[in-house]
Amino acid sequence: MKSDTLIEIDHVTFGYDAARTILRDVSMTFRRGQVTAILGGSGCGKTTLLRLIGGVYPPNQGRVVFDGELVDTRDKELLYRVRRRLGMLFQFGALFTDLTVFENVVKLNAVGLRGAASLRISQVSGGMARRIALARAISLDPELIMYDEPFAGLDPISMGVTANLIRKLNDATGSTSLVVSHDVQECFQIVDYAYLMAPGGRLVAQGTPAELSRSDDPEVRQFIRGEPDGPVKFHYPAPPLAQDLGIPT
Predict the structure, then answer these.
(1) Is residue 31, in this structure, part of any structural domain at all?
(2) 24 vs 244 pLDDT, higher one
(3) What is the pTM of this model?
């Protein structure tokens, strides 16, 4: 009998070099059949988590487990098996602009764009391009679909259409979806569970949208409400300005 857990992130720490840690002792569990959001501001390690799940990089510490198998970047056969079971919607689509819509992807009816098959990518809107990229991500019927900032740069109508598609496709196919985003309101309308990450690659909260909305934690409240003042500061950590300018204090 299969476990309810499809992916486990177990005490993962990661940095691209020794100078900066991107993820710091992060643990997450993604359940089969659910839509789960990984929320947080820019630079907190959200997209990096997707790269670790896909086996692009190994964690410095901890482990990533996909359906009971340890994701080992040195095992090419395992990586092929894992990647064959996942689809990826890249930020801003990453479509081939010299090909037609049809040549980029054939599963267009599911996203409402069968009539656009003969168009060039340069002829479609941003919202249509995102749906074409989504059709490509599901073209091999993956068990896991990972969305990297699917709402970035979209108008309100296109955002709503994209969010609706993520939820409907997940439920219709029985897949598992991970949505990396900083758009709280769109995510809270469609996800079953959410993790909130903070600067420095820390996991600060997790729960259902209702649970996170009720949180009294200052860091959670600041992010969910979009408040400018709070624990997350405007300035990146730096020495006093006078010290940088060499002014005696």
Answers:
(1) yes
(2) 24
(3) 0.77
